[in-house]
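seq as requested:
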Amino acid sequence: QVQLVESGGGLVQVGGSLRLSCAASGSSFSIKDMGWYRQAPGKQRELVARNIMGTIMIYADSVKGRFTISRDNAKNTVFLQMNSLKPEDAAVYYCNAEVITGGRSRQVWGQGTLVTVSS
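struct tokens:
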């Protein structure tokens, strides 16, 4: 069974930076896409950034120019560098991956990491 483990969340001041990491572990799997989503209190979970097939990066309009997604395919790890953080960036950030096992594709989610932005 494939698991995703996030790290790097925490408390940061407005304008500060954080780097989130998400590592996939398990056996006999490959990963197609990896990405980050977030969910603020009272709001729906939304896409933040996604790395598609290791080559295409897509971003939510609200984070373009401030956040950067990157991926280490050899380590099955995805990162989210968050700069110029705003209060509206505060949320629980979830890692997501499209995992291929036994020829089948499924979505796997991490447990989430909390990002708090103080003004």
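The two ends are 40 Å apart (CA to CA).
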